[in-house]
């Protein structure tokens, strides 16, 4: 009876959201698990070493539901990105906590085995109680100090992620492009004193960008964007060789296959999901690739000689870049979108051949459990 009731609810959800089903479900792979997000809720499911699936779920309306102005194009992209980043960090923290607790439980079992008694030879007695003795006595450990609160950890993680991304994808490409242009004679070399220190020499090369024409600036910003994209691809490709990251990529594939099964209105089972594609147009990988393409276009008109001005303007324009990229991804996912939008998301789909790997049925099961748990919290009337 309960299964039939649940099935009726799932069919009702499919019917109500049939028009824009491609907009309501998303997710993220975490450590040994998947986070799924529906319009008004999210759920996280992680598998422990003993096979148990641990879940948590909570209602979480979009900010635009409360602040209507965030529904406007461009603004909704920035709001969605910030909320998704905060939720992603929260999901990662939950999965890390489950993993650590599971590891501690395994260690406790190993220590318990060490306390088991073993037979010991004792001369001069026939009493079996004298033939057994503990192998080792282990004193109980002191309880570990409590860690920082989850909210403080999430804020710290977000700040570190933003700082790292600014350094790797804005500062480094800009500086390297300037040095490259000077070395190739496409930009004016700085005047350096004969007794200048290495630091003064370095600053002379990176502090100012001296180009003679607007066309030179367009070329400079194009190379800057290509360097930024190269860094991103190399980082993703290198991470794919790390065993733990590859496991996350497998769960990433499970997330995509499950979302595809949901969007096609199929029954949510591992057997149905495993036949779906791994590459999804709304994936975060595709979003980041579109961000880099949009950034190349917007940054092409920036032509400040001072390096710090170029950095400040690029950072200030990132919300606009994110908002425009969100609109591109959102429209490209629709069937009626044009060839240009499809083309812009194509590099991201190619890159998903790395960031998603083929999952097994157990990983698909975890993704399905996560999606079902989040759907339970949708504010829909049951029949």
Provide key terms for this protein.
383 residues; 59% helix; 4-stranded antiparallel beta sheet; two-stranded antiparallel sheet; globular; 12 helices; alpha+beta
Explain what the structure shows.
The strands form two sheets. Strands 1-2-3-4 form a four-stranded antiparallel beta sheet. A two-stranded antiparallel ribbon has the order 5-6. The chain has 383 residues and is of the alpha+beta class. It has helices spanning 2-16, 63-66, 75-114, 150-183, 198-206, 214-239, 243-263, 270-273, 284-299, 307-332, 339-355, 361-375, and strands spanning 26-30, 33-38, 41-47, 53-59, 117-119, 132-134. Helix 4 crosses helix 10 (307-332). The protein is globular, with a radius of gyration of 27 Å. It has twelve helices and six strands. A hairpin with a 2-residue loop joins strand 2 and strand 3.
Instruction: Sketch the major β-sheet.
Output: 4 strands, antiparallel
Q: Helix count?
A: 12
The percent range for helix content is 55-70%
Structural class: alpha+beta
Distance between the termini: 13 Å
Strand content: 5-15%
Q: What is the global morphology?
A: globular
Q: Mean pLDDT across all residues, rounded?
A: 81
Q: In terms of per-residue confidence, which ranges show pLDDT below 50 for 5 or more consecutive residues?
A: 9-23
**CA radius of gyration:** 27 Å
Biggest sheet strand order reads 1-2-3-4
* Order of helix and strand elements from N to C terminus: HEEEEHHEEHHHHHHHHH
Total strand segments? 6
């Amino acid at each position: 009876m309960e299964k039939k009731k649940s099935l009726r609810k799932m069919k009702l959800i499919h019917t109500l959201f049939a028009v824009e089903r491609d907009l309501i479900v998303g997710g993220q792979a975490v450590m040994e698990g998947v986070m799924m997000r529906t319009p008004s809720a999210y759920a996280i499911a992680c598998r422990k070493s003993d096979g148990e699936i641990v879940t948590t779920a909570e209602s979480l309306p979009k900010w635009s539901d409360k602040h209507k102005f965030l529904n406007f194009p461009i603004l909704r992209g920035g709001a969605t990105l910030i909320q998704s980043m905060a939720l992603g960090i929260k999901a990662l923290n939950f999965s890390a906590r489950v993993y650590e607790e599971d590891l501690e439980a395994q260690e406790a079992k190993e220590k318990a085995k060490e306390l088991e008694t073993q037979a010991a030879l004792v001369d001069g007695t026939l009493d079996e109680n004298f033939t057994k003795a503990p192998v080792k006595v282990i004193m109980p450990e002191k309880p570990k100090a409590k860690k920082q609160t989850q909210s403080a950890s999430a804020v710290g993680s977000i700040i570190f992620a933003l700082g790292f991304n600014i350094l790797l994808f804005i500062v480094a490409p800009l500086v390297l492009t300037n040095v490259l242009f000077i070395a190739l004679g496409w930009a004016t070399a700085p005047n350096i004193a004969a007794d200048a220190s290495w630091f003064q020499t370095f600053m002379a090369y990176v502090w100012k960008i001296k180009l003679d024409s607007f066309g030179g600036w367009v070329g400079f910003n194009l190379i800057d964007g290509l360097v930024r994209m190269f860094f991103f691809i190399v980082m993703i490709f290198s991470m794919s060789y790390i065993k733990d990251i590859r496991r996350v990529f497998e769960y990433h594939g499970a997330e995509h296959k499950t979302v595809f099964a949901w969007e096609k209105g199929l029954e949510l089972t591992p057997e149905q999901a495993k036949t779906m594609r791994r590459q999804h147009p709304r994936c975060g990988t595709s979003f980041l690739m579109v961000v880099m393409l949009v950034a190349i276009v917007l940054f092409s008109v920036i032509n400040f000689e001072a390096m710090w001005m170029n950095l400040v303007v690029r950072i200030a324009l990132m919300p606009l870049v994110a908002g425009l990229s969100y609109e591109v991804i959102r429209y490209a996912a629709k069937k009626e979108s044009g060839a240009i939008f499809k083309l812009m998301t194509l590099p991201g789909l190619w890159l998903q051949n790395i960031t998603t790997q083929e999952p097994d049925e157990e990983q698909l099961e975890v993704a399905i459990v996560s999606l079902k748990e989040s759907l339970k919290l949708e504010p829909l009337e049951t029949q």
